[in-house]
Amino acid sequence: MENTGYLQWGPSLETEISIIDEQHKMLVEMCNQANRKLQDRIDKEFVEQIVHDLMSYALYHFETEEELMLEYDYSEKSAEAAARHIAEHRSFSETVAGVKLALVKGELISRENLMGFLNGWLVNHIMNTDMQLAKFLHEAR
User: Fold this and answer.
1) 8 A C-beta contact, residue 4 and residue 116
2) What is the spatial distance between Cα 4 and Cα 22, in angstroms, rounded to a whole number?
3) What is the Cα–Cα distance from 109 to 47, expressed in whole angstroms?
4) How large is the greatest C-alpha to C-alpha distance in the chain, in angstroms?
5) Is 94 exposed, middle or buried (0-12, 13-18, 19+ CB in 10 A)?
6) Sign of the C-alpha dihedral, residues 40, 55, 87, 20?
7) What is the 3-state composition of the chain as percent helix, strand, coil, each rounded to the nearest 5?
8) Rounded Cα gap, residues 30 and 109, in angstroms
9) Dist. CA 24–CA 110, nearest whole Å
10) CB atoms within 10 A of CB 17
11) What average pLDDT does the segment 115-119 reach?
12) How do residues 96-113 score in pLDDT, each as one tens digit?
């Protein structure tokens, strides 16, 4: 998917779990900032920094979600959904690690491909997988 437009935070992305929503808003803003910056400048070091920053925050966010899963026994009460959720986190991390490796080898990813992947993955993950987790958390509380 080549969605290189800007993401807009709105009710359709809200889980109503404050810590998750705050982190999602930050990820949306980081993607939008990266998109703006990449319109003016594309070079290896710059893309590496953007990928590094986004990956660092994404890992922090994944840790938050996975801690909530543990706290509320998501894997025991909804094993398949929990496994799928964690697998999506790992798949994202592996894809971004692949981008980082390609950059080290001198292969520059286009703005369209990078933002298409990031925007598409984030929106899909929030609207599907994270909403399923949020529903579970609301019911568990």
Assistant:
1) yes
2) 23
3) 8
4) 49
5) exposed
6) negative
7) 80, 0, 20
8) 18
9) 24
10) 19
11) 94
12) 999 999 999 999 888 999
Length of the chain counted residue by residue:
141
For residue 76, give Cα distances in angstroms to 68, 70, 72, 80: 13, 9, 9, 9
Asked whether the predicted pLDDT for residue 2 surpasses 70, the reply is: no
Lowest mean per-residue pLDDT among 81-85, 106-110, 115-119, 132-136: 106-110
Indicate the pLDDT class of residue 114, thresholds 50, 70 and 90: very high
Q: Which two tokens stand for residue 106?
A: 């001198």
Q: Are 116 and 2 in contact (CB under 8 A)?
A: yes
Nearest alpha-carbon partner for 1 in 107, 87, 84, 118: 118
pLDDT tens column, 23-57:
999 999 999 999 998 888 788 888 999 999 999 99
> What domains are there in the chain, each with its CATH number?
18-140 (1.20.120.50)
Terminal CA-CA length for the chain: 36
Residue matched to tokens 């594309």: 42
* Integer Cα distance of 35 and 100 in angstroms: 17
pLDDT score for 1: 36
Residue 15: both structure tokens together: 């889980």
